Each structure stands twice: as C-alpha cells, then as structure tokens.
Amino acid sequence: MIRRIELPAPPAQVAAWRAGDLIRLSGVVFTARDLAHRRLFEAAKHGLELPFDPTGLPIFHCGPLARRDDSRWMIAGLGPTSSARMEATTPTIMAHFATPFLIGKGGMGETTRRALVERGSAYLAAVGGTGALGARAVAEVQDVVWLEDLGMPDAVWVLRLDDYGPLVVSMDSRGRDLHEETARAAQERLVDADRP
Q: Which of 31, 68, 80, 124 has the smallest C-beta neighbourhood within 10 Å, fewest atoms?
C-alpha cells in the first residue's frame, strides 16, 4: 500500500513510517547537494542568516535541471543524487533546522542512522534515473537561492511537489536500514556460494 502524505507531516506520522513503506509526497521540500549542505552546516554552527528558511522542510538530495519559461522557472529534471556525500553535515543540519526527513539515493551511514533514531525521522529512497518523470510532480518552484555562485544543480530549489514518488522508506526511526540489510544478505549469499 502507498501512503499519500500531505506536507508538513506531523512528527508522529514520520516516526510511524517503517522501512519498506511506500510514500508519495505533496507539499514543500528543498533540494541540497554538497555545496548547499556546507552552507547550511556553517549557518547551523555559527548562527548565520540564510536567504531562505529551511526550518521544518524535508531535504531532497537532488540537483534539478531547470529552464526559464517567461518569468518563472520550470523543472525539466528532478532525480536524486547520492546521499552518502552529505553524511558528515546531516545530523547537525537536521537538529538545527528541525528537518523532518530526508530524500535521496543510495542510503546513508551510521551517523545519519543514529540521527534519524534520535529525531524520530526517516530517509526516503528515490529511484535514480527517473528525473524526467520526477519533474512532472513539480507543481511550483517557490524559490531558488545561490544560483549565481553555486550553479543550477548545486543551488537550493524550494519546490512544491504534487504526488511525487513512490519513495521507499529505507531508513526508519527504529534504526532499520534496508541498504545495510540488503548488503549483508548479499554478502551472506556470496559466502554460501563459495562453500563446496
């Protein structure tokens, strides 16, 4: 069964998601890759002012492709980027900005897993290679910041989504991590295959 979630999602709702659940999202998220994460991390550590308010918004590890259509932005590609690169900065950002959950590709590590448990949060995995399909779910570009100096994929895009997904809850608030479980099961199968 697919859960259709209207954002903002109450903390109790996010904490109730379980690894393996399928989610479709409608509401506001913002994108952030490595360079934006560094700026968010510095803002969190030093109390710096930001040109947008990320408080309470889900973070989507994504570098959109966009084009101008008259006076507004249109998203042409919305696919996830590998989340592991943001591992070092994620717990601080989540704690400071009350990030309800993360969206990305490929899973994250132990530091993020602990942060998700502490915060009652989750990591939702999006399917890679589906950028054109994902773009169809963008109802509106609400804002774009740091475009001039970071460039299109690394800028922060504040997006209102309409039924984006399905996404898989791959890391949940109880500490389950489908990526780690899958890797462990594959390793066990390899060991079994090597036995005479």
A: 68
**What confidence tier does 71 reach under pLDDT thresholds 50, 70, 90?**
confident
Token pair for 90: 């994620």
61 tagged catalytic: no
Q: Map out the domains of the chain with their CATH numbers.
A: 2-194 (3.20.130.10)
Burial (CB < 10 A; 0-12, 13-18, 19+), residue 16, is middle
**Residue appearing with tokens 């594959």:** 186
Amino acid of residue 110: E
Specify the pLDDT at position 37: 96
Residue type, 83: S
Burial of 96 (0-12, 13-18, 19+ CB in 10 A): middle
Q: Do 105 and 85 touch, CB atoms closer than 8 A?
A: no
Tell me if the pTM is above 0.85: yes
Write down the pLDDT at residue 82.
Answer: 95
3-state SS, residue 155: coil
Phi, psi of 190 (to 5 degrees): -65, -40
Of 37, 46, 61, 179, the catalytic one is 37
Is residue 29 within 8 Å of residue 59, measured between CB atoms?
yes
φ, ψ (nearest 5 deg) of residue 58:
-65, 145
